[in-house]
Amino acid sequence: xxxxxxxxxxxxxxxxxxxxxxxxxxxxxxxxxxxxxxxxxxxxxxxxxxxxxxxxxxxxxxxxxxxxxxxxxxxxxxxxxxxxxxxxxxxxxxxxxxxxxxxxxxxxxxxxxxxxxxxxxxxxxxxxxxxxxxxxxxxxxxxxxxxxxxxxxxxxxxxxxxxxxxxxxxxxxxxxxxxxxxxxxxxxxxxxxxxxxxxxxxxxxxxxxxxxxxxxxxxxxxxxxxxxxxxxx
Length: 233
Hints:
By secondary structure, the chain is of the alpha/beta class. The protein folds into two domains: 18-68 and 161-232, CATH 3.30.190.20; 75-157, CATH 3.40.50.790. It has helices spanning 2-12, 23-33, 82-90, 98-105, 121-124, 128-131, 149-158, 182-198; strands spanning 41-48, 60-64, 75-78, 94-96, 113-116, 160-164, 170-177, 209-216, 222-223. The strands form three sheets. It has a four-stranded antiparallel beta sheet, with helices on one face. Strands 4-3-5 form a three-stranded parallel beta sheet, with helices on both faces. A hairpin with a 5-residue loop joins strand 8 and strand 9. Helix 2 (23-33) crosses helix 8 (182-198) and helix 3 (82-90) runs parallel beside helix 7. The longest helix is centred in the C-terminal third of the chain and has 17 residues, at 182-198. The relative contact order is 0.26. The mean pLDDT is 92.
């Protein structure tokens, strides 16, 4: 642990205390700061000027990142009849109806995303308390409750990610891996922020973008000059 602590401290010295970097410099810096032996995920924490306690100020959606997220996404599909074959052909890792629901009830959770046909949602709601807290509940607004399983599965596999504000109004989202390099990470970030702008609640007051930090799981955070995001508005 001391070894890791020393590495962290040495990297932290590369971040100017109190400085807020430009977006381009922030993504360059976070790649430079990575020291793990594995390909770390680059995360952003974006605080919005919203109050999620009010339903009309909850910001939630899914976005197709142009460069994906750099990892294999395991997808399950809840379906019946001929839709089972469609989901399998699209590349779903596990497909089923009541049998799949029972499997999940039994504790199996080896997947990253869930999709369902509309006729399955009454049955799927029985495991809502399991899927919901993990952000895995299929949702028509996010395109994960649909009859077009081919499109839905392929989008999720290609790097479609869901994001939502937490209780503090902060969106936490992965932008890809360190190995992507600054430009691809910035491209993915652009795609997400453009969606967040489209979802700006009419009732949100004051500045919409409040703070932004870019980091990896093990590296120090890099603060971003928030006025840079005004160009998206």
